[in-house]
């Protein structure tokens, strides 16, 4: 078990200064930047596109994960890859062609991520494991920051790890997103999370560096 990586979400940051805010989070010790992309269709809210992703990757050296909460990700993959997002993560719920989408992400030059809502089972991973670089397990229903963490999802982490490891996905990282705080970080870690995404706990605190340290 290596060191856990901390990926602050910039969803709650000043959206007019998102690149500067991301840089400040890097200076405060972030290992990755988590960029929540929402299309107003898959989830009710509308956030940012690839141009903003590009302004962030121009500023920071750490990897950026674009979490695409959109209903038609295939249209956006090239733009986010060209914006130099290290990871592009699509939701399993929006496609009947996950394998193709994951291949499309790698072909565009990024690492391929797949996200699952709290109610989405992970047995499908058995059939795409070698194509997955990152699995994003949602512990809230996506759409908003600052929601209550859904602890019943924790069992999914170890289950997913087992399936990935057993089917050629041993290299895939598991990331957990939604209501992650110092109250659940340790549990998530021991269940097998490699990356903790955290929004309000970090960006809503007076001392983001200390908040990240607490999660570690
Ligand atoms: C939810 C987003 C999360 C969220 C994290 O739709 O995908 O990344 O912003 O924020 P907190 O940690 O506040 O739940
Ligand atoms: Zn997210």
Describe what you observe in this structure.
The chain has a single domain, classed as Aldolase class I (TIM Barrel), CATH 3.20.20.70. Helices cover 34% and strands 19% of the residues. It has 9 helices and 8 strands. The protein has helices at residues 18-27, 50-59, 77-82, 98-108, 125-128, 154-166, 185-191, 200-203, 208-215; strands at 5-8, 33-38, 64-69, 87-91, 111-116, 134-138, 173-177, 195-198. The site of zinc ion has 6 residues, from strand 2.
Structural class: alpha/beta
Described by the principal axes of the CA atoms, the overall outline is globular
Strand order of the largest sheet: 1-8-7-6-5-4-3-2
**What's the average pLDDT?**
98
- Intertermini distance: 13 Å
Question: What's the structural domain tally?
Answer: 1
> Which segments are poorly predicted (pLDDT under 50) over 5 or more consecutive residues?
none
Q: Write down the CATH class.
A: Alpha Beta
Strand percent estimate: 15-25%
The major β-sheet equals:
8 strands, parallel
Radius of gyration: 16 Å
The CATH topology comes to TIM Barrel
Ligands, deduplicated: D-xylitol-5-phosphate, zinc ion
Oligomer description: single chain
Q: What is the helix tally?
A: 9
The count of strands amounts to: 8
What order do the SSEs take from the amino end to the carboxyl end, as H and E?
EHEHEHEHEHEHEHEHH
Percent in helix: 25-40%
CATH architecture: Alpha-Beta Barrel
- The CATH H-level homologous superfamily: Aldolase class I
Offer a concise description of the structure.
This protein has 216 residues and is of the alpha/beta class.
């Amino acid at each position: 078990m290596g060191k856990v990586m901390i990926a602050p979400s910039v969803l709650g940051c000043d959206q007019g200064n998102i690149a500067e805010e991301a840089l400040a989070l890097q200076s405060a010790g972030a290992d990755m930047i988590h960029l929540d992309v929402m299309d107003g269709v898959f989830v009710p809210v509308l956030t940012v596109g690839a141009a903003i992703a590009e302004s962030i990757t121009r500023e920071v050296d750490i990897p950026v994960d674009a979490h695409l909460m959109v209903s038609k990700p295939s249209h956006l993959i090239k733009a986010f890859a060209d914006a130099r997002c290290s990871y592009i993560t699509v939701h399993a719920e929006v496609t009947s062609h996950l394998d193709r989408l994951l291949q499309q992400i790698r072909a565009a030059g990024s690492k391929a991520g797949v996200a699952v809502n709290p109610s989405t089972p992970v047995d499908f991973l058995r059939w795409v494991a070698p194509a997955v670089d990152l699995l994003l397990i949602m512990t809230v229903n996506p759409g908003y920051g600052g929601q209550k963490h859904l602890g019943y999802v924790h069992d999914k982490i170890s289950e997913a790890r087992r399936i990935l490891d057993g089917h050629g996905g041993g290299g895939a990282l598991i990331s957990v997103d939604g209501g992650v705080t110092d109250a659940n970080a340790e549990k998530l870690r021991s269940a097998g999370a490699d990356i903790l995404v955290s929004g309000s706990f970090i960006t809503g605190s007076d001392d983001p560096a200390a908040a990240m340290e607490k999660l570690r």
